[in-house]
Specification:
The chain has helices at 51-59, 72-85, 97-104, 134-143, 157-170, 191-198, and strands at 19-21, 41-45, 64-69, 90-94, 112-116, 149-154, 177-178, 204-209. It is of the alpha/beta class. It has one domain (19-209): Vaccinia Virus protein VP39 (Rossmann fold), CATH 3.40.50.150. The protein has an 8-stranded mixed sheet with strand order 1-4-3-2-5-6-8-7, with helices on both faces.
Length: 214
């Protein structure tokens, strides 16, 4: 079944406070400058329909949540949800996550990195496009402070094992811990997780703490 196109936000809804374009951002971006409050910033890579950003911003107004999404349609959809919720601690960037993490974000600039259900790029010739590669994992460690966490969730066991192995191989993270599903109030972090679990399929979840900075 073809994937449904993302739902467009109302035409008269102002997205300017919640939608950013990577191409319009400075070469070095302090993510805290994007928000009103001075709380820590957490980054979600690949936001899809925006469930995590919307629920996280509502659950903890003292923290800021920044998303990066390569699809313009899904970025606008998520920005629309944040705007309709009138939150000031959430925003999304339309653009390439690798470029943001590798080139724009300073050292120790985000408190957490969330990667939920990344595209597995099934075909062998496309595997190099997987986001959880050694370059991304090293830069994710660079932008995290000591004990800042990298969260990885996927329904693809082979990709999970590959990502865990690659993360451990960097030598930049401490021992991982298995993460649990959400509680009754927020049982799912993403729409993809909800669909996967309702279908009875397994989900692999892990968090890696950043080692002390060398």
């Amino acid at each position: 079944m073809p994937r449904r196109p993302p739902k467009k936000p109302p035409a008269d809804l102002d997205l300017s406070g919640h939608l950013l374009r990577l191409s319009a951002l400075p070469d070095r971006l302090d993510p805290s400058s994007l928000f009103v409050n001075e709380g820590p910033v957490e980054l979600e890579v690949g936001c899809g329909k925006g469930m995590f950003l919307v629920s996280a911003t509502a659950a903890d107004p003292t923290r800021n949540f920044l998303g990066i999404e390569v699809s313009g349609g899904y970025a606008r959809m998520t920005a629309g949800k944040l705007a309709q919720a009138a939150v000031t601690n959430g925003a999304i960037i339309h653009g390439d996550a690798m470029h943001l993490v590798r080139s724009l974000l300073p050292d120790q600039s985000v408190a957490g990195v969330h990667v939920y259900f990344p595209d597995p790029w099934w075909k062998a010739r496309h595997r190099k496009r997987r986001i959880l590669n050694p370059i991304f994992l090293r830069h994710a460690a660079r932008i995290l402070p000591h004990n800042g966490r990298l969260h990885i969730w996927t329904d693809v066991e082979e990709y999970f094992e590959e990502a865990v192995s690659a993360t451990n191989a960097t030598g930049l993270y401490g021992p991982s811990t298995e993460e649990s599903p959400g509680g009754p109030e927020t049982p799912y972090r993403t729409h993809f997780e909800r669909r996967t679990r309702l279908a009875g399929a397994p989900v692999w979840r892990v968090a890696f703490p950043r080692n002390e900075q060398s």
